[in-house]
Amino acid sequence: MAVRIVRLGSSRFEGEGTRIGTVRRPPRGVPKTEFAARNWYDVWFPNLAPSVETMKLGQQAKTPAQWVAFARKYRAEMASPDNSHALELLAVLSHQTNFSVGCYCEDEARCHRSVLRELLIEKGARLGASAQ
């Protein structure tokens, strides 16, 4: 059992389980009824996405210092009680079932999912192999 960190829209792993979209907005131009069939996500959970303001910081980050500023702000958002509880829940579930969380970004190193991976590890999650 484990949680995988994935790029939404990528092919699914065998036995991946439920795919959770931790994105601020649904995919553009895709009917809601086709999200799962097109490998976007089964469940939308924007609670773990950066706020719009923070998301823009990450998208505009060109230097390591700017990326660190984004990561610090996103971590602060995830430290709120509601988000912290959600991370704890996912960490516990990762020991009992397979599922994945992800975002659309091509490069995980410059995506909030890289920070989300760290946060889940810090909460004790069991991680599986990732899809890029």
Protein model, in words:
The protein has one domain (3-122). It has 4 helices and 4 strands. The relative contact order is 0.28. A 4-stranded parallel beta sheet has the order 1-4-2-3. By secondary structure, the protein is an alpha/beta fold. Helix 1 runs antiparallel to helix 2 (64-78).
Entry keywords:
alpha/beta, four-stranded parallel sheet, 4 helices, 12% strand, globular
Fold topology:
Layout: E1 3-7, E2 18-21, E3 43-44, H1 52-60, H2 64-78, H3 81-93, E4 99-103, H4 112-122
Parallel strand pairs: 1-4, 2-3, 2-4
Helix pairs in contact: 1-2
Summarize the structure.
Helices cover 36% and strands 12% of the residues. It contains four helices and four strands, in the order βββαααβα.
Low-pLDDT parts are: none
Main beta sheet strand tally, sense and closure: 4 strands, parallel
The overall average pLDDT, rounded, is 95
Seen as an oligomer or otherwise, the chain set is: single chain
- Rg, Å, rounded: 14 Å
Q: How many domains, in number, for the residues?
A: 1
Strand arrangement, major sheet: 1-4-2-3
Helix content: 25-40%
Percentage of residues in strands: 5-15%
Q: End-to-end distance, in Å?
A: 20 Å
Order of helices and strands: EEEHHHEH
Q: Helix tally? A: 4
Determine the structural class based on helices, strands and strand pairing.
Answer: alpha/beta
Broad shape: globular
Task: Report the count of strand segments.
Answer: 4
